[in-house]
Design a protein that fits this description.
Elements lengths: L15 E11 L5 E11 L3 E5 L6 H9 L6 E6 L4 E4 L11 H11 L4 H14 L15 H13 L5 E5 L7 H18 L2 E5 L3 H7 L2 E5 L6 E6 L14 H18 L1
Parallel strand pairs: 3-7, 3-8, 5-6, 6-7
Antiparallel strand pairs: 1-2, 1-4, 8-9
Helix pairs in contact: 2-3, 2-4, 3-4, 6-7
Length: 257
């Protein structure tokens, strides 16, 4: 992956990209997925949500993206452009890496010249140079996720939404992509809302970790992450990391009970 100079704006002066106040979501069958959720994200913040299965984490993302309305409360998306990365890379099997990465820019009506340049820049950023002509079937799981990430990067999003994007990958590939995404985050300065089941991944990736309760999901604890942008894999083996991950795990268990 290319070396990138950090352009992260100071959090206090950065533009707000997402605002939730007392957000609730109930489905027609009577299921209440979310209740009383308060959340603010600014550019330059990487906010990760952990919680038990079925607590409404993915519903939270769908509301943030505008794909699903909140039943009550205030849900405002102040970002001009949103990137959305799913657990499945969702690449079109008949399109090459380059053509897949170009897709969102094409759908947004960006000119062919700009789309081509943005796609090639994004491919370089995620380390897929030399693989532009390959079809998805020729890619590893990690390469497919890089292509999915590059596709959203072509829009230069203010807000990135991640729905457990690395959950199906092996541990080594997952940790490598964690490092690459951290580098991209500090280079681009977007706001991020990241969903994961992994406490270790949450603590390693984030500037802030939110712990959700069981259904109906609401935020039961918040942890500011003190580690700076120069994180390395060795951080995971430090006493400070272990202590913080333990606190998040404890809050997760308490919220689930």
């Amino acid at each position: 992956m290319s070396a990138l100079a950090p352009s992260l704006p100071p959090t206090g002066t950065a533009a707000r990209v997402l605002h939730f106040r007392d957000v609730a979501k109930a489905f027609p069958d009577g299921t209440v997925a979310l209740e009383g959720v308060d959340l603010d994200i600014r550019r330059g913040e990487f906010v990760t949500v952990v919680g038990p299965s079925g607590c409404g984490k993915s519903t939270l993302l769908r509301i943030a993206s505008g794909l699903s309305p909140a039943t009550s409360g205030t849900a405002e998306m102040d970002a001009q452009r949103i990137g959305y990365v799913f657990q499945d890379a969702t690449l079109l099997p008949w399109r090459s890496v380059l053509r897949n990465v170009q897709l969102l820019a094409e759908l947004h009506g960006i000119s062919k010249t700009q789309t081509n340049q943005a796609a090639r820049d994004a491919i370089e950023l995620v380390g897929l140079e030399g693989h532009e002509k390959k079809l998805p079937r020729a890619l590893s799981g990690g390469m497919k996720m890089r292509a999915s990430l590059a596709r959203s990067l072509t829009l230069d999003p203010d807000l990135f939404l991640f729905d457990e994007p690395f959950g199906a990958l092996d541990e080594i590939t997952r940790e490598r992509l964690n490092d690459e995404l951290i580098r991209l985050f500090h280079a681009k300065g977007f706001g991020a809302l990241f969903i994961t089941h992994s406490v270790s991944e949450a603590v390693y990736m984030s500037t802030r970790v939110l712990v959700m309760s069981g259904r109906p999901g609401h935020i039961v604890d918040t942890f500011d992450i003190p580690f700076g942008p120069d994180r390395t894999p060795e951080l995971r083996f430090t006493p400070e990391f272990a202590e913080l991950a333990g606190k998040v795990s404890s809050a997760l268990r308490s919220g689930h009970s």
